[in-house]
Amino acid sequence: MAADAAVQLLQQRGYHRRPSCPHQRPQRRAPYPALLTVSDDEFWEGVSPVEFGTLPALQDAVTVVGYPIGGDTISVTSGVVSRIQTLQYFLTSELLGLQIDAAINYGNSGGPAFNDRGKCVGIAFQKDTSDDTDNIGYVIPTPVITHFIKDYEKSGAYTGFPELGIKWQKMENPDLRKAMGMKPYQKGVYVKRVEPTTPASGCLQPSDIILSFDGVDIGNDGTVPFRHGERIGFSYLVSKKYTGDKALVKVMRDSEVHEFEITLATTKKLIPGHLKGMPPSYYIVAGFVFAAVSVPYLRSEYGKNYEYDAPAKFLAKHFHAMAESPDEQIVVISQVLAADINIGYEDISNSQVVSFDGQPVKNLKNLVTMVENCNNKFFKFGLEFGQIVILETKSSKAATQDILAAHCIPSSVSDDLKA
């Protein structure tokens, strides 16, 4: 197993865990990063670790080993490295990735990719399933794997790959560069947005031109020098850092050049990718079930292909919206448990709650606090698209307990929201 090399490294440095890495497939999503262990030490006896190799070059031979669908025995496929670039990993940053033409099929994820010297150069994690391609697979290379391991060593937990916290666009168009006041020798990328919850928001601004990152000049196409004769997206430089590291960013603003030392951090997603092992939060009143939108929530509502089947209002927020504060959530009425108190509202589902009694809803806990402390005669919920829900306060609180009992629900609120 390719992960055994990481196991040996961790054991040598005092850890008795086995790592796994970020996975992605266009149609089937794989697990999140994790460090695992086995309770019985006998498991490790006779394990022969695989040695990690260096990043391969283009056209280097690779062999992918795994147990994909189609049989019960080991499968071996061969090919070459056809491209090295930054890829958007599932629910995380743009990271270094290898494109290979060896067949990778469902079930290959987590299997090692070996070079011609028998060293592991990466872990298979996804394939291109579009009709216009054939035998395009992707491998998590060893630099990403070792970053994951060292991250755990540095902090005792997986903190994630840091990001600069911006959205940017290329500046290849000469008129665009001229309008921005750039000199012929200046190159860089245009900052479209800065995420409010990241340290960069105190330094960078929309319309800034990022000229360099840690002293490395950025091209108008957003690439930087990589290896001899190669270029790669500048997010590669960011991904080599660790959470809390500092970076020197040179920008042009109003025709003047500035330098900022920015602390890198992971970004706060408006729709989080996972719940960090916690059960989902909920709140129920008068049969209305309130929940916060997350990727696990979307998957439970719309299936494994939620990125195609979920409503556009959620997908737009998932892919493009930024959290305005660290605790911001999208709160929805997930469903309505039918009862006399909510007649006429029973068809509401997955509608965002934007206000309560005229006050904006920041997150689920904020909504619970406002509803529980409400002394008005009526509950007034403002939903998206101007829809409203109005219920008598006293009757709603009284009906809630009967509705919970009818549906065998022990509590109107999840444990994490009780405090």
TrEMBL record:
Protein name: PDZ domain-containing protein
Record-annotated PDZ domain positions: 165-218
Keywords recorded for this protein, A-Z: Hydrolase, Protease, Serine protease
Family to which the UniProt record says this protein belongs: Belongs to the peptidase S1C family.
One Gene Ontology biological process: proteolysis
PANTHER family associated with the record: PROTEASE DO-LIKE 9, PTHR45980
Pfam family, one: Trypsin_2
